[in-house]
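User: Run a structure prediction on this.
Assistant: Running it now.
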Amino acid sequence: MKNYINSKFKIFLNQSKNDFAFLNNRKFISIYKKKRLQGKLKFVSKKNYILVRNKIKNLYLKSKINDENMSFVYEIAKKFNISDNSFVRYSNSFKGLNHRHEIFHQNKKIKFINDSKATNFEATKNALINNKNIYWILGGLPKKNDFFYFNNFKSNIIKAYIIGNHTSFFEKQIKRKISYIVSKNLKKAISHIYQDIKFSKIKYKTILLSPAAASYDQFKNFEERGNRFKQLIKK
C-alpha cells in the first residue's frame, strides 16, 4: 500500500508554488505535507457539491455514484471562477463514458446498466448501493484478496448470475448472502435473467453487468465484455 500511495503521489512532483493540489482525504493531505511538495493544498468536500447537485437534471451525474468525482470537478470549476449556473448547465449536457455505470436503455419497467469497467468489488459496490431490484451479472478473473460484503444494501439485489472461468471464487463470496445461479457466460446469464423476470411481480427492475472482476478469462478487455453485453441485450 505504501508503494501504491507513493506511485500515485508522483502526479504532484512537478508542481510549483503556483499550482494547486486537490485532495479529499485528511490522511493523504498529511502525507502530502510530509513529502514537502510544492503545490497549494485544496481540501475537496462532497458537501459543497451536494448543495448544487439537486439542480442537475442529468441522471448520470445526479446519481450518488458520481458524487466523489463531481466534488473534484466542482472545486476545480470554482478555481476557474465558473458560476454555479454555468456548472449546472454544462453538467446537464455531459455524456458519461461507455462501460462506467452506462445506462444504455431504460423504459417504465426496466433499466439496463453496463458497468463493465468495475473490475473489483469496491468499484461494483457503488452500483449495488445506488440501484434497486438488481439482477446482477458478476464474475471473471478475480482480483487477489478481493472481499465481498453487502452490509446495508443486500436488499437491493434480487439475484446474482455468475459468469467466467473462476465461478467457485464468486460462489464462496456470495454464498448464503444472496440468491445466485452459475451461468458461466453472458449469453446464458441474460437467458436466465429473462426467465426469472418473466413472472416477476416487481414493478421496476435493474439488469446490471458489474463484474467485480477483470475480463481476461473470457474477453480481450472490459470494453469487449461491455459491448458484448449490450449486443446481447439489444438482440
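The mean pLDDT is 94.
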